[in-house]
Specification:
Helix 2 packs across helix 3 and helix 7 packs across helix 8. The protein has a 6-stranded parallel beta sheet with strand order 3-4-2-1-5-6, with helices on both faces. 46% of the residues lie in helices and 12% in strands. Helix 6 links the parallel strand 3 and strand 4. It has 2 domains: 186 residues, Decaprenyl diphosphate synthase-like (Undecaprenyl pyrophosphate synthetase), CATH 3.40.1180; 42 residues, no CATH class. By secondary structure, it is of the alpha/beta class. It is built from 10 helices and 6 strands; from the N terminus they run αβααβααβαβααββαα. The structure holds 3-methylbut-3-enyl trihydrogen diphosphate (IPE) (2 copies) and magnesium ion (MG).
């Protein structure tokens, strides 16, 4: 059955959208936005031009995800390692770009009913950036649609360290460390992502086959989709292609999967 295409969708996007099973959309998509520097280098431009061009990719991806009803989208914008290991000029540029994005995007986020949140060690970011971040999330806090989470100064290992510290502090407030209860749920509840379902799908652009310290706990059973597309060239249509690929996967969670035969594609194929 043909379903209707959300308003404002481009031709290429709607072609892919019509092939999707709307009943099986991922509930949470995480994206490692990579390849800005390479995009710029191919054009003989400075690396920062790639970051600037990446903003259009963010805008298109966020709008498309919201339009098709994805409940949660998490974007890895800036890692703790980026902050420590890149030249100050590049880091400063990224901070200015982020502030400009936050200011400019509030209107679009509100227009699409999107709530904005952050994960990462915010307190280590410049105060002016923290102020801008607080303002943007405050301005969108009444929205009830998609939750957009920006990972800024984020490191999955730091997140796990912070979760353990927070568990220990909670225990010492409640009768001492002897009362500390540690199980998977307790750890999940103390991560920055508490309350969010684990991502079903993680997308990485620019062909790199690694997680680079992103959501290590939460991605335990996520489907991984790597595209060669460099981040500044990524658009809603590419997001939908990632979802299409995701819908072809057989998620087994350590079991035997849909067909009950385990990882034998030809069996599954023959039975259809
Ligand atoms: C991703 O692009 C953006 C950030 C990490 C901030 P890169 O800057 O990592 O681009 P490449 O990987 O060097 O091409
Ligand atoms: C991962 O990209 C971090 C973000 C996209 C923010 P990097 O470019 O920093 O990762 P590595 O260095 O290639 O692992
Ligand atoms: Mg990179």
């Amino acid at each position: 059955m043909r379903h209707t295409v959300p308003a404002g969708m481009e031709r290429k996007e709607s072609d892919v959208y019509l092939r999707l099973d709307r009943a099986r959309l991922p509930q949470h998509i995480a994206i490692i936005m990579d390849g800005n520097g390479r995009w710029a280098r191919r054009r003989h431009m400075p690396r920062v031009a790639g970051h600037r061009a990446g903003v259009a990719a963010v805008r298109s991806t966020v709008e498309t995800a919201a339009r098709i009803g994805i409940p949660a989208l998490t974007l890895y914008a800036f890692s703790e390692e980026n902050w420590k290991k890149r030249p100050k000029t590049e880091v400063d540029f990224l901070m200015r770009l982020l502030c400009r994005y936050l200011k400019a995007e509030i209107r679009t986020l509100n227009g699409n009913n999107i709530r904005l949140k952050y994960i990462g060690r915010q307190h280590e970011l410049p105060e002016s950036v923290q102020r801008e971040m607080a303002e943007a999330s405050e301005a969108t806090s009444g929205n009830t649609g998609m939750l957009l989470t920006l990972a800024l100064n984020y490191s999955a290992r730091s997140e796990i360290v912070d979760a353990f510290r927070s568990l220990a502090e909670a225990a010492s407030r409640n009768g001492g460390l002897g009362h500390m209860e540690v199980d998977e749920q307790a750890i999940s509840d103390h991560l920055y992502t508490r309350g969010l379902p684990d991502p079903d799908l993680v997308i990485r652009t620019s062909g790199e086959m690694r997680l680079s310290n992103f959501l290590l706990w939460q991605l335990a059973y996520a489907e991984i989709y790597v595209t060669q597309t460099l981040w500044p060239d990524f658009r809603g249509a590419q997001l939908l292609e990632g979802i299409e690929e995701y819908q072809k996967r057989d998620r087994r969670y350590g079991g035997l999967g849909q067909d009950g035969h385990g990882p034998h594609r030809e069996h599954a194929e023959a039975k259809r």
